[in-house]
Amino acid sequence: TKDGYPSFMAKEIQEQPDAVRRTLQGKVDAQGRITLADTDIEADFLMGLKKVIVIACGTASYSGQIAKYAIERWARVPVEVDLAHEFRYRSPMLDQHTLVLAISQSGETMDTLMAVRYAREQGARVLAVCNTPGATIPRESDAVFYTQAGPEVAVASTKAFLTQVTAVLILALYLAQLRDVGVGAEIGDAVEELRGIPEKVKQVLASERQIKDLAGALAGAPAVLFIGRHVGYPVALEGALKLKELAYTHAEGFAAGELKHGPIALLEPGQVVVVIVPSPIGSPILHAKTMSTIQEIKARGATIIGIAEEGDSVVNTWADEVVALPPTHPLLAPLLTTVPLQLLAAHIALARGMDVDQPRNLAKSVTVE
Ligand code: M6R
Predict the structure, then answer these.
(1) In this structure, are residues 276 and 337 in contact, taking their beta carbons and an 8 Å threshold?
(2) Is 57 in the pocket of ligand 1 (CB under 6 A)?
(3) Which residue puts its alpha carbon closest to atom 14 of ligand 1?
(4) Are 250 and 244 contacting, i.e. CB atoms less than 8 angstroms apart?
(5) What range(s) does the SIS domain occupy (predicted)?
């Protein structure tokens, strides 16, 4: 049931702090170390791992892109991310030292299932990250990490995405711990920060009023661009996908550094650009680069909405509107920066009179290839 919320979407967005908390439960021991005791994957295999390939579709694939940044940074294992429907057709190189991470909320997505079967035939080990107990993908995988979002009813994914990001961060930290690659102190800090994330997600949800007003002003916009760097890039892709799905507004997400390689031609007065801004303290170099991109956008007269860390005075000078978020570790930032984009898409859709739970032409799980 909707428990008094106007839509499943609204309810599922609000459930995110609990969904993330449940996904973390039992994964951090009293010493602050990650344990994956209930995930049936041998430590020996993970220690000898040569490569990780993530396969997924849509929103789940963006959590896969975040996995790449986290696993490479913390565990120092090369990661490739592939859309499941592209994977088999590029003759991927896999062997018994490859871990394939199949991320799927429903566990029934046919494209992802076919990729899982192919990977296992080629001798790779498949770990499913799934939200649906007993679904086909986890049944056909070697091991499974269940996200604990609870049933997700709205067609557009929200809480499942946040728990997928949580799961891949846990996995990256676990791999780093096992492989002992010399980033020990950072791992400890990140684990500590992860435990505090549900509370910060709750704080971000408190910005709903501001975002609703913003959505009212943007409801008539013919197109919205989303840009980000590093983990902000997949978040930009997710923000654009949410807006397309829910509001049927043309939206495009791209890496902020790409702007000058083409998309800048789209900028003119009235064009709205949502910028995911890295932390000035946690990621000063990326922050400075994003600021110069913001100035280029401003010079073309476009409207800038910044999703930024609270107290970021530089972004405040340049952006037309800023949604301020609590500070966190740079790799954990998607758990916060995604939330205002979900709210923005949902409120633009509502302002345009759309059904946010059941957008046109879409199904909750895509069981055809
Ligand atoms: O159930 P899955 O996670 O495998 O689904 C993958 C995509 O179909 C799904 O994330 C889709 O992109 C959503 N509608 C996004 O909101």
Answers:
(1) yes
(2) yes
(3) 156
(4) yes
(5) 41-181, 214-359
Strands (E), 200-245: 223-228
Atom number in ligand 1 closest to CA 242: 16
Question: Alpha carbon of 57 to those of 36, 82, 84, 113, 255: distances in Å?
Answer: 25, 8, 6, 11, 19
Half-sphere CA count of 47, side-chain side, radius 13 A: 7
- Residue to probe by mutation, ligand 1, list 9, 66, 366, most atoms within 8 Å of CB: 366
Distance from C-alpha of 222 to C-alpha of 239, rounded to nearest angstrom: 16
Give the nearest ligand 1 atom to 137 CA. 4
Ligand 1 geometric centre to CA of 92 (Å)? 23
- Over residues 75-101, the pLDDT tens digits come to 999 999 999 999 999 999 999 999 999
* Residues 252 and 225: beta-carbon distance below 8 Å: yes
- The contacts of residue 42 (CB under 8 Å, 6+ apart) are none
106 in ligand 1 pocket by Cβ < 6 Å?
yes
Please report, in angstroms and rounded to a whole number, the separation of the first and last CA atoms in the chain: 31
Amino acid present at 126: V
pLDDT bin (cut points 50, 70, 90) of residue 115 is: very high
Residue 168 Cβ < 6 Å to ligand 1:
no
pTM for the structure as a whole? 0.97
- Strand pairing category for 303-309 and 321-325: parallel
Catalytically active residues, by annotation: 364
- In short, whether 158's Cβ falls inside 6 Å of ligand 1 is no
pLDDT tens column, 312-321: 999 999 999 9
Residues 6 or more apart whose Cβ sits within 8 Å of residue 220: none
